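User: I'm putting together notes for a lab meeting next week and I want to include a structural view of one of the chains we've been expressing. I don't have a solved structure, so I'd like a prediction I can at least talk through. The sequence is below, exactly as it appears in our construct file.
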Amino acid sequence: MYKPTAPWFDTLTASVQALGAASREYRMAERTAHHALWNIDPTRILPTSGAVTVSGRNLARPHHDALHQLRSLHTEMLERTKTLYENAAETYAHGAAAALRSVLVGERPEYVELRRCGDSFVQPTAALPDLRALLGEWAGSGRLATLREQMIDQERARAVVADFEFFEDLAGCVIPEWSHASDQAAGLADSAHAYGETAESALYFVLLTGRTPRDGEDGRR
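Assistant: Thanks for the context. Below is the predicted structure for the 221-residue chain, given as structure tokens.
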């Protein structure tokens, strides 16, 4: 039985949509883990002081123990979901940008092409492409460019944080450069997700309007 093949733009947009959906799921999980940890913050909740004896000898405080165990679990979950969200959001941003640029220069890729290591996607070493010249007539071009610059700055800040990781073992060591970079890099996942959404909107605009690149814009003609 003949099975029609989906047009290239259907599979390409589905690729970008899937990246966005994955990023949103991890973002929701990260927000949920953060909220769960906040709910048992020791500055907010007063543990019940009641104690029990264990085997008739040692005292144990069940509520204290429960809060301690839950804090450990929720902290681990928060760190894990933060890592997953950042990876998914960056992948969304770079994947959507690659799809958009390919279409703008006249290519017809069927899928977003990525590399993977374990359960995470490998991010490109090159910075996000500057698409302002190709998207000059699109209303969201300025926002896309702003988010691109923001992401580049935050990715650089994250690299600085990684360079200083060995200082974590030095108790009480405060490094201003690390602190500033850490604060700046903290918003990378949200910036990347916003970039991905904006680039996805641009992709729909290009496909729906049938826009073609001008001669010489991408340096290939």
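A couple of points you could mention at the meeting. The helical segments are 8-39, 62-104, 141-163, 176-185, 188-209. Confidence is low (pLDDT under 50) at residues 213-221.

User: Perfect, that's what I needed.
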